[in-house]
């Protein structure tokens, strides 16, 4: 049994060199493939890269055959290639190797080809939703799948979105193919958010990774509907940090009641402080969410600006609390509720997320930057 110099090196140089039993000589094309990859990196002006090697399955089968015939010091040909390629590329291109680099160089040994794929760019920030009527993410029309029809007025979507207001300027600035916004929770379409909700914008296939966050924040704010702050590039792993984190929030709810309310009613509402409520999935979202009963704690409830049959409520509650249903009772699906305590109807006319206690995200960012 003979091996090429590359495969023999992976197997402790224990075999005679010749026509390779493992790769049939394809691994020896590595030097030329590295030269091709280096040229791509230099052409694109890339400062950091990662690599991926595609090894044909028949190589792996024949590699095990070699190991069965002669046990001893050996490593996978894939591992050897990854080590040698990354070192050779660093030297040839001057770019740095990083598992989270600007691009990925794919060495496909089944085709003998090299391909440069731009890695996603991840930007963290906080958005404030200043105008009601925007969904958080893009919401394509179910009838036409985004193509435009009479059902959606030819728009191809039900609402404009926060995702678009933020994503489109970044897409243009980075010359990207597309984008996806990952956020820490969401508010309803008809609610606003003056607090600032954490998000990570995933920018796909960006040609330009050098962005002016301040200029982009200004462009986004100029529209008057959405504002962003705290923008910075973060590692891929921060997507999970943001989406899997849940925080207490304080809401400002403008509520209309079915009758005149007085001091006794205000005291009844305040009695919800510290109480755990049971919330069955609201009727308005039951068609798209599991029908569950959730336990959520109301941590603070104060009534201000009390008028004859209306009041502004400041409500602090655990993450995942349905505030509109806490107010209305949702036909008995939320117990206790403000409507239930007062024995009259209660409707949330306007809702704003006033504070999100997400300092944990700042801690995570500072830890990664340290």
Structure described in brief:
Helix content is 29%, strand content 29%.
Task: Describe this entry's structure for a reader.
There is one protein chain. The protein has helices at 5-10, 30-44, 57-69, 77-93, 162-174, 213-221, 238-243, 263-270, 323-328, 338-342, 359-369; strands spanning 2-3, 16-17, 48-54, 96-97, 103-108, 113-118, 121-129, 178-183, 192-204, 226-233, 249-257, 276-280, 293-304, 310-317, 334-335, 346-356. With 370 residues, it is of the alpha+beta class. The protein has three domains: 2-117, no CATH class; 121-245, Alpha-Beta Plaits (2-Layer Sandwich), CATH 3.30.70.2510; 249-356, Alpha-Beta Plaits. Strands 7, 8, 9, 10, 11, 12, 13, 14, 15 and 16 form a ten-stranded mixed sheet that branches. α2 (30-44) packs across α4 (77-93). The longest helix has 17 residues, at 77-93. It is elongated, with a radius of gyration of 29 Å. The two termini are 53 Å apart.
